[in-house]
Write a structure and sequence with these properties.
70% of the residues lie in helices and 2% in strands. The protein has one domain (32-208, 236-431): Growth Hormone, Chain: A (Up-down Bundle), CATH 1.20.1250. By secondary structure, the chain is mainly alpha-helical. A two-stranded antiparallel sheet has the order 1-3. Strands 2-4 form a two-stranded antiparallel sheet. The longest helix has 32 residues, at 72-103. The radius of gyration is 21 Å and the shape is globular. Helix 2 runs parallel beside helix 4. It is a multi-pass membrane protein. It comes from Hymenobacter saemangeumensis. Keywords: Membrane, Transmembrane, Transmembrane helix. Residues 38-431 form the Major facilitator superfamily (MFS) profile domain.
């Protein structure tokens, strides 16, 4: 690994709407190379995280059928219930791991979270009832909540500020391809074995973590006893800071509208759109996450080329709005192959996930950075808990539909995209911002 010193920063740029103080230290934080162990291990960790996170969407129908749930309406309702349990676990885990990341260190979260979700996923392969399935998805959700935020925080603090976007781009591009492996394993080896493989990959990754060093910025702050670290509730005690935090959360909501509603319910949308053949959630997930690989690469690269995180995010939100329109109104009566190609385009359009987490990390000081970078994506993922009942209300029951499946999804998508675009438009630009400071 190549190392070079970065100076201690006294008064960060782009610090609008925040109470912040300089951090002094006798030894400056160090930076590392773009292809260092930190970046590689964070990318592989996110790969396993995405594998396990998206696996249920791929094996939902088959696993529920093996557990005795075969009626179409029950497959939908029980599937949404299990997704809500997983997302509820991620909400709890986001707070837990975020606080631990700022109090005990970024590496402690990387180790603890992957151990928890690996063991939970191995246990998931043995379930015999829906209740067992639900509780293990909740536990797995708690574990899955820590990986991305801690990894992005560690990479952001370890790379020079001019290369941060490229580092998180690598993490995202490698990471989201874990969904492609999840599809292949789920189709070839069966749903129970797919959970065993996910757990095994996570445990194997723990061996690689030994080569990773803690963030120098965190170590400097840790040495200062007067600096309060990981105070989650301080995000809510100062109005401008709370506003900045909420806007960070809202940016990620459209992605989970697309993945949690449009892609997860692919069979239901396929029937509503009158496609000429059946579509599966597994293939919809495969193609959308294949698109995410390209989208995450492009969004990270554009944010570097344009020297603007916000401009890249606005571009992708506009692209997402166009693709949602095509998905809901542009392919009625088409073939399944056309549907899957649109899923690929949707995936590209929401490929700003790691960029969104990077922006969240760059908006806050070292003593709160892991808390924000870990809670933000998990609260965005957890928005599914609100999106699902809203979608069910807008669309209405099959017997007495309000707007119907397609129009209900269109209304919900428009709302999520509008609030995300507003959030990006009002956040301070964070490209090139010095992160070596603390929040009071």
């Amino acid at each position: 690994m190549e190392f070079g010193a970065t100076p201690v920063h006294f008064g960060p740029p782009n610090a609008a709407n925040s109470v912040q103080s300089p951090k002094s230290s006798s030894s400056p934080a160090q930076t590392t190379g773009l292809f260092s162990a930190v970046v590689i291990v964070a990318a592989l960790g996110y790969f396993v995280d995405i594998y396990d996170l998206i696996l249920f969407s791929i094996v939902r129908v088959k696993s529920l059928a093996d557990l005795g749930v075969t009626a179409p309406d029950q497959v939908t309702s029980q599937g949404l219930f299990l997704i809500n349990m997983q997302m509820g676990g991620m909400l709890l885990g986001g707070i837990l791991w975020g606080i631990l990341g700022d109090r005990r260190g970024r590496l402690s979260v990387l180790f603890g979270s992957i151990l928890l979700y690996s063991l939970a996923n191995i246990a998931n392969g043995f379930v015999q009832t829906i209740d067992q399935y639900a509780w293990l998805r909740l536990i797995a959700g708690v574990g899955l909540a820590g990986e991305l935020g801690a990894g992005i925080t560690l990479v952001s603090e370890s790379l020079p500020k001019e290369k941060r976007g490229y580092g998180t781009m690598i993490v995202a591009t490698v990471g989201v391809s874990g969904a492609l492996l999840a599809y292949w394993v789920g189709e070839k080896l069966g749903w129970r074995n797919a959970y065993f493989v996910g757990g095994g990959l996570g445990l194997a990754l723990l061996l690689l973590r030994v080569s990773v060093m803690e963030s120098g910025m965190f170590q400097q702050v840790q040495a200062q006893s007067e600096v309060k670290r990981g105070d989650f509730f301080s995000l809510f005690t100062y109005g401008p800071r709370l506003s900045r935090y909420v806007r960070c959360l809202l940016i990620g909501v459209p992605l989970w509208f697309v993945i949690g509603i449009l892609i997860t319910l692919a069979p239901e949308f396929g029937r509503a759109l009158g496609l000429t053949g059946e579509v599966t959630a597994g293939l919809a997930v495969f193609w959308s996450y294949f698109g995410l690989v390209f989208g995450d690469f492009a969004s990270g690269a554009l944010s570097q080329v344009w020297h603007s995180r916000n401009r890249a995010l606005k571009f992708f939100l506009g692209f997402c709005a166009a693709m949602v329109g095509v998905y809901l109104y542009g392919i009625k009566g088409s073939t399944p192959n056309t549907y899957y190609m649109v899923c690929f385009g949707l995936g590209v359009s929401v490929g700003f996930w790691a960029l969104f987490v990077t922006v969240a990390a760059e908006q806050f000081g070292t003593n709160l950075r892991a808390t924000v970078a870990t809670t933000a994506p998990n609260f965005a993922r957890g928005s599914v808990l609100l999106l699902v009942p809203l979608f069910q209300f807008f669309s209405g029951p099959a017997a007495q539909p309000r707007l119907g499946l397609v129009n209900g999804a269109a209304l919900l998508g428009a709302l999520s995209l509008l609030v995300a675009f507003w959030a990006v438009s009002t956040l301070p630009e964070s490209y090139g911002k010095d992160l070596d400071y603390v929040e009071e």
